[in-house]
């Protein structure tokens, strides 16, 4: 190892940004060189993406320039796309260069998991980045415009969302809120528009208590969503989806939210993975590599015999822990075991509605919607202080 260790962080998502900020705070001058690599020069708030996707909030409220979040005198920001991780050479190959590292943190986020369902990768869209949600939003508006300019084909105003987990439910809720406005703008009868939420599991929102799930489904049905629970998408075609019931829903818009996997670059690097995610050790290191930490959607942390679901909450806590462990490793001190502190779960059901579990208390309706906003404001405060809260926050 060189006299000043080189720390490279891949990905400026929830995990990567928290790691960078904590390293910036803890490291002394000249104790290490820190480089943060991200595809874009902005950090996006993934937990908001369903809103700009449906068109109920702006893209600008969902992203923050990374240079506003870090001190570029202390951290080198490299805007580039990671192409390859070479474990044996301790190098990362970027689209336009190469970086060598002594310590590597991998926080490249997840990718949609299509479970081999034919046609999904080719014909469905997914909510995963600013660019992908921009596409969804423009596509939906274009369908309304086409509907009025063609012979009013129903598939233009049928919308299919695959998956009734967190992101699927939050997206259909926003879409249902947006449809009346689109109908007004494009002179379309709202009664003709259909939003289908298709889920292979027998219930929506796994992990929430049945009474909260029932409430959520009731709210969304009243907003006009048709649920098809316990029904699998068998195939996605250019014309829509074929379901396990034999039914075909003709639709020019299929948004897939039904699964998330780790990043393919991790598999390609040669780590042992389960659906692109690495089961990390108690200090968040990749097995066999004392200098490589894997966090967020790229990692698997077990709670007994089941892994914690990939969330922003766990990614943030991992970011802090892995930064502290790298500082300890550099200083020859003992590492800290990662322990996840679950602070609660909140899902938005669109304007003024939500469901939440905090400790042993459950909330629904307006209170839960306000809690969702508080969680969002808290995140903005953690990464950007009061300035960011005032700039990007959506208040009560
Ligand atoms: C619609 C939606 C709603 C959600 N709602 C919630 C919620 O309410 N609560 C919750 O806890 N979780 C929620 N999640 C899950 C949460 O967003 C993720 O678990 C979290 O973002 C994971 O953080 P991460 O740091 O692993 O990756 P990410 O936050 O995804 O960040 C990865 C970063 O890596 C960058 N990157 C990727 N590939 C490359 C490359 N090749 N080269 C360079 N940079 C690259 C990306 O641009 C991105 O900046 C939601 C997810 C979605 C999609």
Secondary-structure topology with pairs:
Elements: E1 6-10, H1 14-26, E2 33-38, E3 42-44, H2 50-54, E4 63-65, E5 75-79, E6 82-86, E7 91-94, E8 97-100, E9 103-106, E10 111-112, H3 120-123, H4 130-149, E11 158-162, H5 166-186, E12 194-199, H6 210-222, E13 225-229, E14 233-237, E15 240-243, E16 248-250, E17 253-256, E18 260-261, H7 264-269, E19 278-279, E20 292-294, E21 299-300, E22 302-303, E23 306-307, H8 312-331, E24 345-348, E25 354-358, E26 361-364, H9 366-392
Parallel strand pairs: 1-2, 1-9, 2-5, 9-20, 11-12, 11-17, 12-13, 19-21
Antiparallel strand pairs: 3-4, 6-7, 7-8, 10-18, 14-15, 15-16, 22-23, 24-25, 25-26
Helix pairs in contact: 1-8
This protein binds flavin-adenine dinucleotide.
Describe this structure in words.
The protein is an alpha/beta fold and 396 residues long. Helix content is 33%, strand content 25%. It contains nine helices and 26 strands. The strands form nine sheets. It has a five-stranded parallel beta sheet, with helices on one face. The protein has a four-stranded parallel beta sheet with strand order 13-12-11-17. A three-stranded antiparallel beta sheet has the order 6-7-8. β14 (233-237) and β15 form a beta hairpin. α1 (14-26) runs parallel beside α8 (312-331). The longest helix has 27 residues, at 366-392. The model has no long low-confidence stretch (mean pLDDT 96). Bound molecules: flavin-adenine dinucleotide (FAD). The site of flavin-adenine dinucleotide has 31 residues, from α1, β2, α5 and α8. Residues 11-16, 37-40, 46-47, 49-50, 81-82, 107-109, 127, 166-167, 170, 296-298, 310-313, 315 line the site of flavin-adenine dinucleotide (FAD).
């Amino acid at each position: 190892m060189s006299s000043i260790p080189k720390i490279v962080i891949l990905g400026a998502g929830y995990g990567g940004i928290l790691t960078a900020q904590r390293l910036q705070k803890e490291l002394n001058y000249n104790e290490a060189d820190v480089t943060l690599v991200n595809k874009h020069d902005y950090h996006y708030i993934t937990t908001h993406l369903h809103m700009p996707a449906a068109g109920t909030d702006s893209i600008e409220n969902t992203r923050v320039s990374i240079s506003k979040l870090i001190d570029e005198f202390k951290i080198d920001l490299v805007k580039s796309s990671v192409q390859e991780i070479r474990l044996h050479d301790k190098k990362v190959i970027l689209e336009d260069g190469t970086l060598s590292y002594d310590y590597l943190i991998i926080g490249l986020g997840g990718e949609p998991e299509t479970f081999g369902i034919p046609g999904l990768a080719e014909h469905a869209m997914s909510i995963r980045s600013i660019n992908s949600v921009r596409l969804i939003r423009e596509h939906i508006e274009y369908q309304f415009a086409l509907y009025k300019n063609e012979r009013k084909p129903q598939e233009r105003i049928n919308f299919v969302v695959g998956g009734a987990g967190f992101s699927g439910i939050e997206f259909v809720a926003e879409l249902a809120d947006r449809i009346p406005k689109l109908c007004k703008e494009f002179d379309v009868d709202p009664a003709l528009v259909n939003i289908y939420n298709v889920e292979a599991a027998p219930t929506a929102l796994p992990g929430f208590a049945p009474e909260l799930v029932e409430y959520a489904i009731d709210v969304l049905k009243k907003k006009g969503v048709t649920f098809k629970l316990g029904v699998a998408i068998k195939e996605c075609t250019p014309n829509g989806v074929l379901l396990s019931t034999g039914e075909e829903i003709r639709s020019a818009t299929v948004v897939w939210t039904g699964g998330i996997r780790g990043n393919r670059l991790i598999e390609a690097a040669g780590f042992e993975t389960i659906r692109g995610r690495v089961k990390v050790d108690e200090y968040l290191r990749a097995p066999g590599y004392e200098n490589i930490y894997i966090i967020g959607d790229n990692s698997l942390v077990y709670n007994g015999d089941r892994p914690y679901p990939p969330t922003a909450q766990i990614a943030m806590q991992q970011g802090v822990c892995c930064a502290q462990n790298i500082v300890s490793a550099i200083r020859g001190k003992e590492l800290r075991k990662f322990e996840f502190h679950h602070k609660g779960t909140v899902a938005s059901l669109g304007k003024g509605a939500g469901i939440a579990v905090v400790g042993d208390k459950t909330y629904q309706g307006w209170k839960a919607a306000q809690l969702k906003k508080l969680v969002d404001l808290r995140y903005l405060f953690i990464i950007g202080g009061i300035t960011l809260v005032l700039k990007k926050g959506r208040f009560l």
